[in-house]
Amino acid sequence: MAGDQAEEEEDTIWSGLETAGMREAKCSLLIQEDGTFEPRIKSLPKQRVLVYQDKGYNPATANGGPQDENFYVDFNGCTILQLEPAPGSQQRTMPITLTVGGRCIFTPENYQDFKVMMRTKDQSSDMHISPNGNFDWPDVESLLMCPLCRRKADIPREGDDFDHEYWLLFYPLLQITVMKGSQMTLGTRTICRLTCLECMEDLLEGMTLKVRPATMNGRRPALSFTLPANEVLAEAGSASFLEDGPPRPETHPHVDDILDAWTLYNLWEHSGAWEALQNDYRIVLSRSMHSDNGADNAGSNQEAIQQKKSRGNRLSQPPRGERRRRHKLVTCDTCKKRQSYTRMKKCSRCRNATYCSIECQKKDWPKHKAVCKKIP
Fold first, then answer.
1. What is the pTM of this model?
2. How far apart are CA 346 and CA 324, in angstroms?
3. Strand 354-355 and strand 241-243: pairing?
4. pLDDT at 276
């Protein structure tokens, strides 16, 4: 038994950013090569939630007075796109859910904001601000590292003539720490992860989702459709609330207006969806820890294995080349190459020019610059 456990620990892929408590809880910042997921359209129910992440609220000193009401939000519920561990699949690490926050651009200001929010205890001391609770968590480097391919996002700089565009995923963390005496405490936290456009495309390749039309007159039609998960992702918009999401910020009122990463995160946080998501993960974690991985799940396990084979080894192989897709293809304005919508980049100013790569966006900028400024 001890030998099997040691071998499993050796096979686990670690990023090098995990804390000792995360390793104790077998919580890696990287999706394992044999990890399999099922995409789900999930409803987060209405609830009253406590929104206090980095807002000066200290649960230990709260007394239930009127001032504490400032940290509560009546969350109205919403429908989201989430990837859960496939039923019956073997888990080398703690079960991880991947919630699609939306497609975003990453700006220099975003980097500074996340650097303050995602701080270690030592960094908190250097900044002369309170730490993020009793546990120590990875810093902003974990935001920059793609959980699928391990590549680190470039830190944006003022004057960059291209957009740093990613999918923003919400990724739960766990760790075990000895707090008092020999008492072991489990800590949880959800963080933001910048994820490569092509990695998301590869992850969802071959996956399907059952979609039902929106509720009409208080009733949801019984009719449903099965669609490729990549198509659902492409149509979700820059803030991936599929139904009943919070109002978009006034600065980006249209669904096609791409949000920057910090604005997107705050849309989830201030609406209460962020805390509702963390409550939901506690349910998923409890269910997965008590699930029966026996014969009843054999069918799901086979399907998960097929998904794994279709994805291949993401951590050791380069991104896949161009493949034939069944979903929407878009033409690059520079090189005229056609790729799926979810891989393409758009000019963040006018949202009209489309490119297959940063290189093509840079190459076209001298010509597009004059046109871009004229678009209202």
1. 0.77
2. 22
3. unpaired
4. 92
Q: Which residues contact 279 (CB under 8 A, 6 or more apart)?
A: 47, 49
CA atoms within 13 A on the CB side of 97: 27
pLDDT of residue 320: 35
Instruction: Return the DSSP state at 323.
Output: -
CB 167 within 8 A of CB 148: no
Which residues is 43 bridged to in the sheet? 79
Q: Give the per-residue pLDDT at 173.
A: 93
Looking only at the bridges linking them, the beta strands covering 259-260 and 98-105 are parallel
321: closest CA among 231, 227, 205, 224? 205
Q: What is the 3-state composition of the chain as percent helix, strand, coil, each rounded to the nearest 5?
A: 35, 25, 45
Q: Give the per-residue pLDDT at 145.
A: 97
User: What DSSP string describes 183-219?
Assistant: EEEEEEEEEEEEE-HHHHHHHHTT-EEEE-PPPBTTB
Token digits of residue 278: 């963390």
Per DSSP, the three-state class of 279 is helix
CA–CA separation, 234 and 50 (whole Å)? 31
CA distance 240 to 242: 6
In angstroms, the CA 34 to CA 309 distance is: 9
Q: Distance between CA atoms of 353 and 305, rounded to whole angstroms?
A: 39
Find the radius of gyration of the CA atoms of the chain.
21
CA distance 326 to 172: 32
- Name residue, tokens 């609220």: 57
SS3 assignment, position 74: strand
* Residue 288 CB partners (closer than 8 Å, separation 6+): 85, 91, 95
Dihedral angle, C-alpha 51, 56, 62, 68, nearest 10 °:
-50
**Low-confidence residues in the chain, pLDDT < 70:** 1-10, 52-70, 179-182, 213-222, 255-256, 288-328, 341-342, 373-376
Half-sphere exposure of 194 (CA within 13 A, CB side): 25
Helix axes 273-289, 261-271, angle to 10 degrees: 80
